[in-house]
Write a structure and sequence with these properties.
Layout: H1 3-13, E1 18-22, H2 28-34, E2 41-44, H3 48-62, E3 66-70, H4 74-82, E4 92-98, H5 114-118, E5 124-127, H6 134-146, E6 152-158, H7 159-163, H8 187-198, H9 208-224
Parallel strand pairs: 1-2, 1-3, 3-4, 4-6, 5-6
Helix pairs in contact: 1-2, 1-6, 3-4
Length: about 220
């Protein structure tokens, strides 16, 4: 199985039915694999920023992980412009094309440091350098995006990795050493925060963050109704 086919297989295994994106030279192998199957539907947008916003809307309204597919260089940088705010709360997996591995760092055509650019505004990001790592990275990206505090994850895939052939398998567990999200709150700190709010002189009835969360929960409940 080629790397491009692994990408589509991983999306299908994760239950992804729709992927918004805009094609380009560095992701053509993935697009070739995409249109040879029926499990994942591609939503063609007119701009990479639009692809991110479409995936955000999908994630907010369904509670599922939104998926984006864009090319290298200008495609990846325009994706950054849409997701350039620090750590959004929407679970997104953004797949970006990249020049072949032997050209990385040589100022190749439509090359950019996607990992370096997106590091400040993503929950995590990857540059895949081996076809053997691709299946694990793809599934790990979805795990990180939707677990703990949701957020965007970028997977940068060089073109030679998309053409390379390897063995696809879905990992059963994730042994990410640096990712141990806290899923339960600290009761002592929560009680202390409640006491501070109770004795506040100028109370805020609905904090902005809480308001945003309530709106998203209402949207998800309406979508499931």
């Amino acid at each position: 199985m080629t790397g491009a086919e692994m990408v589509i297989e991983a999306l299908a295994d994760q239950g992804i039915e729709h992927c918004s994106g805009y094609p380009g030279g560095a992701v053509l192998p993935i697009y070739d694999a995409l249109f040879q199957q029926q499990k994942v539907q591609h939503i063609l947008v007119r701009h990479e920023q639009g692809a991110v916003h479409a995936a955000e809307g999908y994630a907010r309204s369904t509670g599922k992980v939104g998926c984006v597919l864009v090319t290298s260089g200008p495609g990846a940088t325009m994706l950054y412009r849409a997701d350039g705010r620090p750590h959004g709360l929407d679970p997104l997996v953004c797949l970006t094309g990249q020049v072949p591995t032997h050209l990385i760092g040589n100022d190749a055509f439509q090359e950019c440091d996607t990992v370096g650019i997106t590091r400040p505004c993503t929950k995590h990001n990857y540059l895949v350098k081996s076809i053997a790592d691709l299946p694990r990275v793809l599934h790990e990206a979805f795990h990180i995006a939707k677990s703990g505090r949701p957020g965007p994850v970028v997977v940068d895939i060089p073109k030679d990795i998309q053409f390379a052939k390897g063995i696809y398998s879905r990992p059963k567990d994730f042994q990410h050493k640096g990712y141990r999200p806290k899923v339960k709150g600290d009761l002592d700190r929560i009680k202390a925060a409640i006491e501070l709010m109770r004795h506040a002189k100028r109370r805020c009835s609905t904090p902005a963050a809480a308001s945003s969360t309530l709106v998203r929960k209402r949207a998800i409940s309406c979508a499931n109704w």
